[in-house]
Amino acid sequence: MEKREIYTSIRKTIMIMVSYVLIAVAVSALVLTQTDLLILKVFGVLIDVVIAAAFVFTFRKMLNRQPLFVFDENGVTDYSKPDDVITLPWNQLVSVGLKAANSNDLMLNIVGYKTADQLGNITPEIRQQLAANDNKAYYALEVSGLWVARKDIRETFEWMKETIPALNGEIQFVDFEDPLAKLGKKF
Description:
Layout lengths: L3 E3 L3 H24 L4 H26 L5 E4 L2 E4 L7 E3 L4 E8 L5 E10 L8 H9 L3 E8 L6 H14 L8 E3 L13
Parallel strand pairs: 5-8
Antiparallel strand pairs: 1-2, 2-3, 3-4, 5-6, 6-7
């Protein structure tokens, strides 16, 4: 099986950083030219400091790109939260679907489960879920269109549709159908 990785989109990351700069400039221009109140100027500078920190964090994240998701012989592994890495084996996936995150972005939604013997730290919530779901704790892994290019999400979905049924024939695939695309078309 070919290994597939999903990374954050450089283009989207740069667009977010440009947005940070534009917001910081607008806030600075407003508080430094439109008010004489010291408290508002201090508040504006604090907002700019927070925006600058977000810019630096995003820039460092862009330079040190790590995969968000890895698809390999072990299954799908979610690295989006480094302190909570989750691997779902192929035979324990229930569904894979595309849905609209907003008017421009798609989101890949992967639902699977782990059994009690696959879990390390079982919290009371997970214990309750295991009892209610035949000893299965369900997980929903989502690849967000905010950070990942639509093309990469679509290609990964198509790759999964072609590859995964050989490993798990019971998995359901739900493709995104834009309801607005039907408007104006004759049926």
